[in-house]
Amino acid sequence: ACIICGRSFSKSIKKLQQASYPLVTKIKSLSGVRSYKDGKFYSLKEYFDNFCPMCYLVGIIEWTDKGIIYRTMPGEKSILFLPQSDNLLELRRFKETYHPLLNTNHRYHNIKVKRESEETENTYGSFSTLLCFYEKFFSYTKRNDKVRNSWAMIDIPFGPVKNIKLNNIEISSSILQIIKKLSEEKINIYKEIIESFLFFNDNPKGAPINWELTGEIRENISEAILTDNFRFFAKNLLPRKGGHVGVYLRDVMQKDVKKNLEELIYLWRLKNMGLNEKQLETIKSAGRTIAAASKSHRSLLYKLDKVKDKTDLLDALRQISRRIAGLKPEEKKKYKGFIYSPALEDIVSLIEQHERDEKFIEDLKNILIIFSCVEFSRIEYLEEKKEGEENE
Ligand SMILES: [Zn+2]
Description:
- This protein folds into three domains: 1-63, no CATH class; 69-171, no CATH class; 175-385, no CATH class.
- It has helices spanning 28-31, 53-62, 88-98, 126-140, 173-184, 189-193, 211-226, 230-235, 251-268, 277-294, 299-306, 310-325, 329-334, 341-353, 358-385; strands spanning 36-37, 40-41, 69-73, 77-83, 150-157, 165-170, 197-201, 243-247.
- Helix 11 (299-306) runs antiparallel to helix 12 and helix 12 (310-325) packs antiparallel against helix 14.
- With 392 residues, the protein is α+β, with helices and mostly antiparallel strands.
- 47% of the residues lie in helices and 10% in strands.
């Protein structure tokens, strides 16, 4: 009898394998009913031949589903993204809505750069691919098209298929709203924010950009957004051994990139913190000041990152103030346009006002890290260009 449908059949066509049923695996938890029979667990090996031609056909037809999003890293793994829903009709509608955004002829990745083009996005990993998908979804679908937030992400390693990983993820509606809002403001979260981040090597003699780490960071910050983990987002922007994170700094684009990022942070956190326009400017200004203070004293940024409460935060800011006060005249000249000490004082009084609000303190810390890390790489750039944006 066939192990899938139970029908008896005379001649098997092919062994049950992943080409026809992607979740075929020896891992019991992923094999469902197929690995369980007569109260005993079986490994799938014993089932290899008990697979009827009809089920083979049905299995193969799965792959003609135009709604499968995939990303293959040759020699490493493939990731499949399957939307989930209890309602098959809704699932079908959702897939129909987005399948024009996919180019299933492409071998390794199938999210189109633009709806009308055949070119596809070369994303780094699973979360960046999913975030990229939502960018396209909100840019190209109509207002009343229903979006779904529940996915099965399946990692299929190359070679002998043993360790398939299934990751179920649900994106919160507040995060989807942010991506949608950005899209309405013509800001593409993947193309114009995530892909703007780079990891620069400190040693200018070697290659300027570490692409491997750049990919990892883009993947991590995509994960941070989709899982609504603001802390993880901030943490990934900190300088590391041998280099630092920066955003793409290209003449005309430069300002846009920063603005887009600021808008993301505004929608994600600042908007709900009850701050006025002036306080928002203060935070940005403090970010520039902290960047200048930690340029050759990265420990100041690491200290800020380790802040656990209000007292720690005030302490970290005090150290930054001391560093600013101790700058030599040539350093002051170098960081002109970045340093504005009163901003730090204003931050201190902001902290005093919200001293009982732990979430506020934690969010403020992370925002200061994000803004200062982005400014950190601008300092060098502007120094080279001999131009500065005034910080006052
Ligand atoms: Zn069958």
